[in-house]
Specification:
single chain, mainly alpha
């Protein structure tokens, strides 16, 4: 019966989920219409909000493009290819491959979401080269690990409220990560995810007639097959110079040693990208090999470049019109101290479809949920983590964060979101129960 439900979900999504670009256009129109009707804004006000906010995620768009490009370049180095190949040799059956890629994704995403998205997608490709397994489910399993990111070490909301001087310190003070990331209820959710998500992915394995396989030869990157030419021009010698690569690469690694070890700084998206890039420079050995890998990597970045500005426009409509706050306010208006985390989680999941940014979502929802928690004498740390988990939860429905994974894997959103939809319902139950009753 479970496989029948999965097959129905997959067929439903394949038939009705449009390309992510069309999806973001539809969301834009929905957000604009809701602001027009619900917030009594004029069409011109909404258009101005949208246009003014269109480039609000420009720096983040570049960061995400570099997550894809730098991670891809690093993974194409001979050393990393060998590591991934060795790990991919461990599972011997399709079921074991599904479980292993899910566990690796969960662990990597819990450490850092940018790192996890790239590593899990590359590992899925490597597994597909060695094991005959449904490629859609394999990539969906890699992406499903993203569910734990906001309850992990790089969760933007828990790290924000644990930082001195954060913008709500006057209302809620500083909340330690021992009360959020490392709290009993949060760790229980994370442990539950490590058990349930791999098992559900394994249970969703389609039978032979419904499986979609991929020719392993199609997964080979042409950059790996390029050989050095015999060009002896001075410019060519510079491009193939190992000394130049080592000078700049080891300068970057020296900075990273100082950043991590001497200064004791933590992970963020910029330093993850810098780490990927410097390691790629060193491990490729020369600029020509690096640039060959770049040519392959950049091909998958089109979706990120064109879609992220539209999401910035949607976020501007949701925030500036008051629509996001109104939605959150309505959903928590009938809550009690016990049920507030559940209703906050649900509202955050809905808002995340339109505002797929953890930090941006906290800025939108925090005034509402902090006031509600204080008036009901609810646990502020738990309510904040309810926003965090709601933000992570509907990423299983919203293809925004899947774009880097899809670009690396060479699939479309409709190929994997049917499987993710099943995980949406299963993980939603687990998170709701723990937030409410534990």
């Amino acid at each position: 019966m479970f496989k029948s439900i999965t097959n129905f979900s997959v067929r439903l999504v394949e038939r009705y989920l449009p390309d992510p670009y069309i999806f973001v256009i539809i969301l834009t129109l929905i957000a604009g219409g809701a602001a027009l009707i619900g917030e009594q804004k004029t069409p011109m006000e909404i258009i101005n909000m949208w246009g003014d906010g269109f480039w609000g995620l420009l720096s983040f768009t570049m960061q995400m493009l570099l997550v894809l490009v730098a991670g891809y370049m690093l993974a194409s180095t001979p050393a990393v290819r060998k590591i991934l190949s060795t790990l991919a040799s461990v599972p011997k059956t399709p079921g074991a491959a599904i479980i292993m890629v899910t566990v690796v994704a969960l662990a990597a995403d819990w450490i850092n979401w940018g790192f996890g998205l790239v590593v899990s997608a590359l590992f899925a490709k490597e597994l597909a080269r060695k094991i005959r397994v449904d490629y859609r489910l394999l990539v969906a399993s890699a992406y499903s690990g993203f569910i734990v990111w906001h309850g992990g070490l790089a969760g933007s909301i828990p790290l924000t409220i644990a930082t001195k001087g954060h913008f709500h310190e006057g209302q809620m003070g500083i909340i330690s990560t021992s009360d959020t990331i490392f709290s009993t209820f949060n760790m229980l959710i994370v442990v539950g995810m490590f058990i349930i998500v791999p098992l559900v992915n394994r249970m969703m394995m389609p039978d032979e007639k419904n499986s979609v396989y991929i020719d392993p030869s199609l997964l080979e990157d042409s950059s790996a097959n390029k050989v050095a030419d015999n060009d002896t021009r001075p410019a060519a010698r510079l491009e193939n110079s190992r000394i130049l690569a080592m000078l700049i690469g080891f300068s970057g690694l020296t900075y990273l040693f100082n950043y991590y070890i001497i200064r004791g700084e933590g992970l963020n998206l910029n330093v993850i990208n810098f780490t990927f890039l410097m390691l790629a420079i060193v491990l490729h050995g020369n600029s020509r090999n690096l640039l060959n890998a770049l040519e392959e990597a950049i091909k998958g970045g089109a979706g990120i470049v064109i879609q992220f500005p539209f999401y910035a426009g949607i976020m501007a409509i949701m925030v500036q019109s008051g629509l996001a706050a109104s939605l959150s306010d309505w959903l928590v208006s009938f809550a009690s101290a016990t049920t507030l985390p559940f209703w906050t989680f649900l509202s955050a999941g809905i808002v995340n479809v339109f505002v797929p940014s953890g930090g941006g979502q906290w800025a939108v929802q925090s005034p509402v949920v902090i006031a509600a928690a204080q008036s009901l004498d609810a646990d502020l740390a738990r309510v904040a983590m309810a926003v965090a988990w709601g933000d992570a939860w509907t990423n299983l429905l919203q293809p925004f964060w899947a774009l880097p994974v899809l670009a690396i894997a060479g699939l479309k959103a409709k190929d994997i979101m049917g499987f993710c939809l099943i995980q949406l319902f299963v993980t939603g139950v687990l998170i709701s129960v723990v937030l409410t009753f534990v």
